[in-house]
Design goal:
The complex is a heterodimer. Chain A is α+β, with helices and mostly antiparallel strands. Chain A has 2 helices and 4 strands, in the order ααββββ. By secondary structure, chain B is of the alpha+beta class. Classes of the chains: A alpha+beta, B alpha+beta. Chain A: It is found in: Chromosome, Centromere, Kinetochore; Cytoplasm, Cytoskeleton; Nucleus.
């Protein structure tokens, strides 16, 4: 059975666009704050939800996964890795690293094209 | 042919084996952590694809040294609730935390 894959020039993940969206969300949530154990949960939730909302508003036929890690700066080592099994022509990822005096924040966006 | 589903228990076992295989019995070592995180995600991903289901997969791994610092993670997904799924495994030993998340998106 033949498979027909329509080649759509718009189906390329724009990592720069996603990077800017995420950076703005992080700034607006963490901007001037210091690490606060009581607030971190609502911060990480706000960052992923706002980022996701803005990405979806781009109106592209993609599924999105946004992850966020916020860590107190104390000298501990933190290492992250990710591996993806997908269509490299249409799918993509973008990682934003942000920090201030008291915390590090790493946000990953994974965009997976929806095949219609 | 019934649509394949993301089975959390199945994926959870795969992740646990990958973590144990890569870092089980080891103490945090700055010089090795990069190859450990790589090994965990690659091992997990290859076992997932071997399931032969029509899914795209994303696997992430975080390893953090235990020294009292707080670490918080969150994720949010825009997908098809009926077919897509995720599984997160938290593992620790005396010197480090390891958090692995796998996301499966149906084709």
């Amino acid at each position: 059975m033949e498979e027909f894959h329509p080649h759509n020039d718009e189906m390329i993940f724009n990592a720069d666009e996603a990077h800017n969206i995420v950076k703005e969300c992080i700034e607006s949530v963490l901007g001037k704050a210091d690490y606060n154990q009581n607030k971190v949960n609502q911060w990480t939730a706000a960052i992923v939800e706002q980022s996701l909302t803005h990405l979806v508003k781009l109106g592209k036929t993609y599924k999105y996964i946004v992850t966020c890690a916020v860590m107190q700066r104390s000298g501990a080592g933190l290492h992250t890795a990710s591996s993806c099994f997908w269509d490299t022509t249409t799918d993509g990822t973008c990682t934003v690293r942000w920090e201030n005096r008291t915390m590090n924040c790493i946000v990953n966006v994974f965009a997976v094209a929806i095949i219609l | 042919c019934p649509p394949a589903s993301f089975l959390v228990d199945e994926v959870s076992s795969i992740i646990k084996e990958a973590i144990e295989g890569a870092i089980g019995g080891n103490a945090y070592q700055h010089s090795k952590v990069n190859q450990w995180t790589t090994s965990v995600v690659e091992q997990t991903l290859s076992q997932l694809t071997r399931l032969g289901k029509p899914f795209k997969y994303i696997v992430t791994c975080v390893i953090m040294q235990k020294n009292g610092a707080g670490l918080h993670t969150a994720s949010s997904c825009f997908w098809d609730n009926s077919s897509d799924g995720t599984c997160t495994v938290r593992w620790e030993n005396k010197t480090m935390y390891c958090i692995v998340s796998a996301f499966g998106l149906a084709l």
